[in-house]
Amino acid sequence: MPNDPREKQQALIRVRRIRGQIEALERSLEGEAQCEPILQQLAAVRGAVNGLMGSVLESHLREELATPTDPNPRIETAIALVRSYLK
């Protein structure tokens, strides 16, 4: 989990947004919505979760592998690679 209070707050905001998306998905399923809107909601949830995962992973890599005086360019490459994979 991010140690920076701002990053932690941003992660919590994302989790709450994802919770809202999941609750909307549940209501759609209970209401017997058509398949297309449900698939759109699922894609939105997947994107939100992937965004959260990328953000937490980026924070972790920066906190554990880089120092403020010596930012490691390989970390930036790894972060970019993971972000492109999560899209």
UniProtKB/TrEMBL annotation:
CDD domains: RcnR-FrmR-like_DUF156 (cd10153)
UniProt-listed Pfam families: Trns_repr_metal
Domain of life: Bacteria
Gene Ontology MF annotations: DNA binding; metal ion binding
Record InterPro entries: Metal_Tscrpt_repr, Metal_Tscrpt_repr_sf
Residue ranges of the TM segments: none
GO term, biological process aspect, one: negative regulation of DNA-templated transcription
Protein family according to the UniProt entry: Belongs to the FrmR/RcnR family.
Annotated protein name in UniProt: Uncharacterized protein
Organism annotation: Haematobacter massiliensis
Lineage: Bacteria, Pseudomonadati, Pseudomonadota, Alphaproteobacteria, Rhodobacterales
